[in-house]
Amino acid sequence: MSVKHFLNTQDWSRPELDALLDQARAFKQTKLGDQLKGKAVALVFFNPSMRTRTSFELGTFQLGGHAVVLQPGKDAWPIEFDLGTVMDGDTEEHIAEVAKVLGRYADILAVRAFPKFVDWQIDRQDRVLAAFAKYSPVPVINMETITHPCQELAHILALQEHFGTTDLRGKKYVLTWTYHPKPLNTAVANSALTIATRMGMDVTLLCPTPDYILDERYMGWAEANVAESGGSLQVSHDIASAYAGADVVYAKSWGALPFFGNWAPEQPIRDQYKHFIVDEAKMALTNNGVFSHCLPLRRNVKATDGVMDSPQCIAINEAENRLHVQKAIMAALAHQ
Ligand code: CP
């Protein structure tokens, strides 16, 4: 029997996602449990983290399990992912052995592996996560690669709590690009587009130019979700009309895919759009809208102090919810 992984929410049915959110709500009420008693979770980080590492480690502990953190290339051997490679370079062992061995020790593996930012056609294959899922004999969780499905559920739980209902259909949802001095991962933007449309919201992707539209895979998922959920999807480059009447503003910065691996010409373009910052004037255009961000966030670059410190900001609630939704995901995967 093949194991079920948590690689993308799009692989899970809507009733399955709703059940995870219900379980997360229950864990929020009752912190401790025994769903992971005697079980081990291996957390493999190829990139830094504050929220993800802390919430996975503590969440595992709170359910009676034990988490081990590994950072390949730092405190664990560098891993080779290509097949057929003569490994006479920097890598010491192959993912085929790493995933199989970790799967003999641990009951769940979780992986964070950001893009290399050199060639999007390679990065969009999500090869590290796919290789772990291919070789692991136990469930694998995506802790952010080119999507961030744990963040998706934490975000939706925070919105459901804010609006006092699990039914988010018809809410006007704006996913806005914001400025950042560096080109960042599209993962959270891909994920926000995916889950907002899955929940039947009326979604606007607000970005500076067509170059900032997301990869066709995620635009395609969003369109398929809209057809299924009855929501809507539009792309806008006009700040005022996008914010007008919005119920939700979700902000993220990302690099323009046509410039992937050749970022120098993108810098002067992005520098023209610092005014995409989420500020009080833009939020005043909304329908008393709620603001959130996955964090970390550079204050007064992506959003102003005034927005971050306002009652409309639910970013801290969303971050807390990472703990609860990940406990629900781990409990579900450990007992499949
Ligand atoms: N939002 C999020 O994944 O935060 P970290 O990068 O700190 O884990």
From TrEMBL:
Positions carrying N6-carboxylysine: 302
What residues bind carbamoyl phosphate, as annotated? Answer: 49-52, 77, 112, 148-151, 294-295, 322
What is a single cellular component term in the Gene Ontology annotation? cytoplasm
- Specify whether Cytoplasm is a keyword of the entry: yes
Q: Name one GO biological process term.
A: L-arginine biosynthetic process via ornithine
Matching InterPro entries: ArgF (IPR043695), Asp/Orn_carbamoyltranf_P-bd (IPR006132), Asp/Orn_carbamoylTrfase (IPR006130), Asp/Orn_carbamoylTrfase_sf (IPR036901), Asp_carbamoyltransf_Asp/Orn-bd (IPR006131)
Q: Enumerate the GO terms in the molecular function aspect.
A: amino acid binding; N-acetylornithine carbamoyltransferase activity; ornithine carbamoyltransferase activity
Subunit info here reads:
Homotrimer.
> Which family is this sequence assigned to?
Belongs to the aspartate/ornithine carbamoyltransferase superfamily. AOTCase family.
What is its biological role?
Catalyzes the transfer of the carbamoyl group from carbamoyl phosphate to the delta-amino group of N(2)-acetyl-L-ornithine to produce N(2)-acetyl-L-citrulline. This is a step in an alternative arginine biosynthesis pathway.
Official protein name in the record: N-acetylornithine carbamoyltransferase
The protein's organism comes out as Stenotrophomonas koreensis
